[in-house]
Amino acid sequence: MANLKEIRSRISSVSSTMQITGAMKMVSAAKLKKAQDAIIAMKPYAYKLKQLLEHLSSALGSENVYNPRKGAVKRVLLVAITSNRGLCGAFNANVVKKVIELAQTTYKDKEVQYYTIGKKGNDVLKKTDKVLDNNNHIFDKLTFANAASLAEALMTRYTNGEFDQIVLVYNGFKNAATQILTEETFLPIQPVVTDKKTTTDYLYEPSKQEIVTQLIPRSLKTQLFKALHDSVAAEHGARMTAMHKATDNAQDLKNELILTYNKARQATITGEIIEIVGGSEALS
After folding, report:
1. What mean pLDDT comes out for the span 211-235?
2. For the whole model, what pTM was predicted?
3. Which terminus of the chain faces fewer neighbouring Cβ atoms within 10 Å, N or C?
4. In the prediction, which pLDDT does 249 show?
5. 3-state class of 184 per DSSP?
């Protein structure tokens, strides 16, 4: 059995850990509220805009450079959206695992490369020698302008023929305790399949060209911005949950150590009493 000094030291160490995990839980809870409000407000708009985008793509056909190309898909870019910090459970590991799984199964016959957003995903995936580029700073200041710049870079890689498909992999936000691992095709835009008899003939105002050059790119930027916000909210939820569990586990460990300390202290006192009684009897 460890001596009393060692047990007291461990109890002190566990107490310090509880204070840290408790503080991190409170910080994540505060950040989660803001991130949750942002993604809840944004999702309906992004969803409707995506629906409009798919219907427009069907109507524009080959005039839309963001539609699927003829021929088989040969080159795929997997965009892994993780976080810059850890201590959030399996949040980052799930994305990395999914990206590698897609490369080895769904796209095993394709030429696959990775684009990492977030330091944690990049640290792991760069060991595979498939990381084309990474952006670890966008979460430092997540604005629509920064997301739009990143989306433009991805759109350019598609329109210039560098890749035939671009897929986003990230954790979607459901609630504070639940994150949904999401695989979402960013490009090409998947047109809505409709019956030719019920095809709508659209009147375009402004021109079709204006829609292709302005509305569709903006919709794609919004889609990426939504995915980033989704990931941020999910990250704070995952970290809050992880720190809550860590605090509870630390409390359980502290209780066990206190019980062990009391038993050791009782054994020490009992031993000292026996020695005193034995010494007294020897003298008498």
Report:
1. 88
2. 0.83
3. C
4. 93
5. strand
> Which CATH architecture best describes the domain 25-191+202-241?
3-Layer(aba) Sandwich (3.40)
Q: Are 79 and 155 in contact (CB under 8 A)?
A: no
Tell me phi and psi for residue 79, to 5 degrees: -100, 110
pLDDT at 24 exceeding the cut of 80: yes
Query: What size, in residues, is the chain?
Result: 284
Using CA atoms, how far apart are residues 223 and 189, in angstroms rounded to an integer?
A: 11
Provide the residue ranges of all domains of the chain, joining segments of one domain with +.
25-191+202-241
Contact between residue 163 and residue 75 where contact means Cβ atoms under 8 Å apart: yes
Label residue 73 by pLDDT band (50, 70, 90): confident
Alpha carbons 88 and 278: distance in angstroms, whole number: 57
| Non-local CB neighbours of 1 within 8 Å, separated by 6+ positions | 260, 263, 264, 267
Q: Is the preceding peptide bond at 188 cis, omega within 30 degrees of 0?
A: yes
CA distances from 79 to 16, 130, 141, 225, 278 (A): 38, 12, 19, 13, 76
